[in-house]
Amino acid sequence: MKNIVILISGSGSNMAAMVRHAQQEQWSKRLQTRVSAVISNKAEAQGLDFARAQGIATVVLDHKAFDSREAFDAALMDEIDRFEPTLVLLAGFMRVLTAGFVTHYAGRLLNIHPSLLPSFAGLNTHQRAIDAGCRFAGATVHQVTSELDHGAILAQAVVPVLPDDTADTLAARVLTQEHRIYPEAVAAWLRSQG
Ligand code: GRF
Fold first, then answer.
1. Which of 21, 113, 126, 179 is catalytic?
2. CA-139 nearest atom, ligand 1
3. Ligand 1 contacts CB of residue 91 (under 6 A)
4. Between 3.30.70.20, 3.40.1280.10, 3.40.50.170, 3.20.20.70, what CATH number should domain 2-192 receive?
5. How would residue 147 be classed by pLDDT, with cut points 50, 70 and 90?
6. Fewer beta carbons within 10 angstroms: which end of the chain, N or C?
């Protein structure tokens, strides 16, 4: 069985969409893959409750307990590697990762970003898209490299920006597409590995 480890910091709706998709599409049977663990850097992340209710192992690793980014990432790698993951998924994980971490998981570390990369890497993507007068926005699934929100693009989805959109209404429209393309991109990645 191949293991997926998902890293979250908050509501974890992308993680929940991944778990539900894996159940509906019978990944354990068809792709010999399961979501084995959900790891959060915040104890209050709501996504942890969902994962626990699904019987998925959860780990909380508070970054504030560490003196440096390197020390946190080293401890995070130890926690992740206990599950021997084929794939590590960032899903609303709000930490910038060190080059050492990214190198350790090279080729098996994916992220979902709420913009049409390479436009609007970084934070506040929806407000920035509105402020720029974009007619379209969207989401991107990509390989993680040491440059923030770069790396090969695996999937994208496009949504319209409507005239009366706020960052919140646009974010909600984009998020429904994130929930669709992230599981599909992961399934395609797993199939491509044979
Ligand atoms: C998503 O929009 C994700 O793309 C971004 O942060 C949000 C996390 O949402 N990086 P959730 O925790 O998956 O609900």
1. 113
2. 4
3. yes
4. 3.40.50.170
5. confident
6. C
Spatial separation of the C-alpha atoms in residues 84 and 62, rounded to whole Å: 21
State the distance from the centre of ligand 1 to the C-alpha of 25, rounded, in angstroms.
Answer: 22
Q: Report the candidate in 99, 62, 54, 98 with the shortest Cα–Cα distance to residue 79.
A: 62
Q: What is the DSSP string of 82-102?
A: TT-EEEEEESS---PPPHHHH
75-122, pLDDT tens digit by residue?
999 999 999 999 999 999 999 899 999 999 999 999 999 999 999 999
pLDDT computed for residue 85 by the predictor: 98
126 is catalytic: no
| Spacing, Cα 115 to ligand 1 middle (Å) | 11
Residue 81, token pair as written in the block: 């590697």
